[in-house]
Design goal:
The longest helix has 18 residues. The protein is built from ten helices and eight strands. The protein starts with a strand and ends with a helix. It has a single domain, classed as Alpha-Beta Barrel (TIM Barrel), CATH 3.20.20. The radius of gyration is 17 Å and the shape is globular. Strands 4-5-6-7-8 form a five-stranded parallel beta sheet. A three-stranded parallel beta sheet has the order 1-2-3. Nickel (II) ion (NI) binds next to loops.
């Protein structure tokens, strides 16, 4: 079986010095590609260094994370644009996060619009981080309707209704990870309703570790656990889930 982890952070300090071991374990588990989510100028160079040393299995995104958007966000954006000639498969992770950054909401909304414009200019999909800001997100997305913006909601934990809502904007997927395995998670219960051809697998490692490893550090080799959970909930074989979600990732983010 072949899998793609569509959102991970191997350059995170949690993995310092262990990157090669993490990559090896993932490959052994059948995870043939790991897409690295960009955060900000503090992590970008190490991310690119790692990705460019493993083009056969790593891909980069380029984007400014909402948690790193403050009053100086235009400087951060300029720093990001220095990388625009490098290889990247998506603009991400970008979005809105009012759980931690409510005081920077206005900056976040501006930064999101600018990065949506860049994604359209570059012909790239977007990888969205969305937390406690659903209505503002859809208000912005309304302005981009019909312009070919496509992407996915990463670490999706919304309702089936929110899933249906994003479908009305065109070619949008949802990234499912460890959260679906958490007891009492709403998204876990919604898994049977979300069509497989709209699902991407992701870890968001080192965070959001799936049950039964919840509380421990997450890594890409745990992707098959997510796939098995989805397979079980949908009454499908793990092979079918692996094939379809890998194909989805290639269609949205490829060719790599
Ligand atoms: Ni992330």
């Amino acid at each position: 079986m072949e899998f793609i982890d569509t959102h991970t952070h191997i350059s995170d300090e949690a993995f310092a010095g262990e990157e090669e071991a993490i990559i090896s374990r993932a490959l052994e588990a059948g995870v043939t590609r790991m897409i690295q989510a960009d955060v900000d100028s503090s992590e970008r160079e190490p991310m690119y260094k790692l990705v460019e040393s493993h083009p056969e299995c790593l891909s980069a995104m380029l984007g400014l994370y909402p948690g790193s958007v403050h009053s100086d966000w235009r400087d951060e954006l300029d720093a990001m644009l220095l990388y625009k000639e490098r290889k990247f498969c998506a603009v991400g992770e970008i979005g809105l996060d009012y759980h931690y950054g409510a005081e920077d909401a206005e900056y976040q909304k501006e930064a999101l619009r600018v990065q949506f414009d860049l994604a359209l200019e570059w012909g790239k999909p977007v990888n969205i981080h969305l937390r406690e800001a659903t209505e503002d997100f859809f208000t912005i997305l309304d302005d981009y309707r019909g312009r070919g913006l496509r992407g996915n909601l990463h670490a999706f934990s919304g309702s089936y209704e929110t899933f249906c809502r994003i479908q009305k904007y065109g070619d949008w997927f949802v990234g499912l990870g460890g959260v679906i395995t958490f007891k009492n998670s709403g998204i876990g219960k919604a898994v049977p309703d979300i069509p497989l051809d709209r699902i991407l697998l992701e870890t968001d490692a080192p965070y959001l570790t799936p049950v039964p490893y919840r509380g421990k550090r997450n890594e890409s080799s745990m992707i098959p656990i997510i796939a098995s959970f989805i397979a079980e909930r949908k009454g499908l074989s793990p092979e079918v889930v692996a094939n379809q979600t890998t194909n989805n990732a290639k269609v949205l983010f490829g060719p790599f």
